[in-house]
């Protein structure tokens, strides 16, 4: 019998099944968020008022995909966009109380899936799996822009620290609050 070396197929199918299972559980719980949307909520729970570009970098999606995610979360009342007063082009995303509540419920569901994945395996096997997956991620890691091109540097531009959440901001939501 031939050795099965279809790692890409196995990883892809595992990711598809995992995402489908989690999305089904989230829907069955009435949360009305997808795994990528829940991921954005988790990040905002960890540190609120993040720029959309920062969120996109962390979860590995481009600006247009991030805009779509935030649009859907905003329409559901789970996040709000806020523009900096000194730079109206810069939008920060703030989680709402309802978004925090749904993030907490989604985290419980995802923890349950994580526990289910580990059932029947010894601790050493789980550690080996994590080590292998981290190794694959490191070997295939994209550059900072995520597109195979180096990040563009702007000469003479000095990064300024972000204001505290809510400081110097104004509401920039195109969606009316409920």
Explain this structure:
The chain has 178 residues and is of the alpha+beta class. It has a single domain, classed as Orthogonal Bundle (Arc Repressor Mutant, subunit A). Helix content is 53%, strand content 11%. Helix 2 (35-46) crosses helix 5 and helix 3 crosses helix 4.
Question: Brief description of this entry?
Answer:
The protein has 6 helices and 4 strands. It is an alpha+beta fold and about 180 residues long. The longest helix has 22 residues.
Secondary structure: helix percent: 40-55%
Work out the strand percent: 5-15%
Number of strands: 4
How do the helices and strands follow one another from N- to C-terminus?
Answer: HHEHHEEHHE
The structural domain count equals 1
Number of helices: 6
User: Which radius of gyration do the C-alpha atoms yield?
Assistant: 19 Å
> What is the mean predicted local confidence, pLDDT?
84
Shape: globular
CATH superfamily: Winged helix-like DNA-binding domain superfamily/Winged helix DNA-binding domain
Q: What is the CATH fold-level name? A: Arc Repressor Mutant, subunit A
Low-confidence stretches: 145-163
Q: Describe the biggest sheet?
A: 4 strands, antiparallel
Structural class: alpha+beta
The strand line-up of the biggest sheet is 1-3-2-4
Distance between the termini: 62 Å
- What's the CATH architecture? Orthogonal Bundle
CATH class: Mainly Alpha
